[in-house]
């Protein structure tokens, strides 16, 4: 490489091919589990989102180069998910702690 | 004009120390932008999750109007486009600009295929009277279902489901269109010879944006098409 700076990590082509292959296989796996969802019951959505989570990790780590990026960018991105979790938790706590008022004067 | 100086053949703004400093700062800005994207879509995801918990039967009724095969094909198309986008950056790093232009062109093409499939999905729903929120025409939809021998929709608030469906997939679609435009811009700059192995900041930034569009679809696909 003409320019071998630490900030310009070059992922080998074979790695990209492997990651893309894994993403395709996981997508087919999602559909595989979807076709037997009546046997999985409440597990079906959990499996679907677990697979989506693994796919997201692959995209983030290799395609978006976070694996070789500075820790600061990883922390910045993770902070987004932290605040998303806060939004979800506080909203759910609000909605499911409301007392139903049915009486009319 | 802002003052910049040339370091290693790259124009570097005067507030940056060197080429790397400029590249790293630009990328950090893109990651901050990505956080706002996650929060924007995240709000919609949280809303979807809460209303899904409140009206599970209505969401199940709505999901039956989506064809998972189209969502599945679109997932494959977007994953492939993410792969070619990553290749575009790889070829820029390797100073193979012709190949980079091709990789970017295939990425734009995949985006276009995605949008064409989305167009067919949307128009099919419009023909059945399915619109977001209050605009959903339930009597018209049930008439149509009766004419093709399917059971009618019971939930009177089906428009809520399609409010989420159209907002989430529509906002995602807008991102795909914007991404296609940005990649085309990179493609022209690449063909013009703007980029070098030590200077491809625009491709890297647009690439991160395109991957986040793919990332959001990775979660939208099971959410809208499979779980319902």
What does this protein look like?
The complex is a heterodimer of chains A (105) and B (228). Helix content of chain A is 70%, strand content 0%. By secondary structure, chain A is mainly α. Chain A folds into two domains: 12-64; 70-97. Chain B is mainly alpha-helical and 228 residues long. Helices cover 75% and strands 4% of the residues of chain B. Chain B has helices spanning 19-54, 56-63, 68-93, 97-127, 138-147, 158-192, 201-226; strands spanning 4-7, 10-13. In chain B, strands 1-2 form a two-stranded antiparallel ribbon. The longest helix of chain B has 36 residues, at 19-54. The mean pLDDT of chain B is 95. At the A-B interface, α1, α3 and α4 of A face α1, α3 and α7 of B.
How large is the radius of gyration of chain B? 22 Å
Biggest beta sheet attributes of chain A: none
Q: What's the shape of chain A?
A: flat
Q: What percentage of residues of chain A falls in helices of 4 or more residues?
A: over 70%
Secondary structure tally: strands of chain B: 2
User: Quaternary arrangement of the chains shown?
Assistant: heterodimer
**Count of helical stretches of chain B:** 7
How many strands in all of chain A?
0
Mean pLDDT of chain A: 90
Q: Order of strands in the sheet with the most strands of chain B?
A: 1-2
Number of domains of chain B: 1
Would you identify the regions of chain A where 5 or more consecutive residues have pLDDT less than 50?
none
| Chain pair forming the biggest interface | A-B, 48 and 50 residues
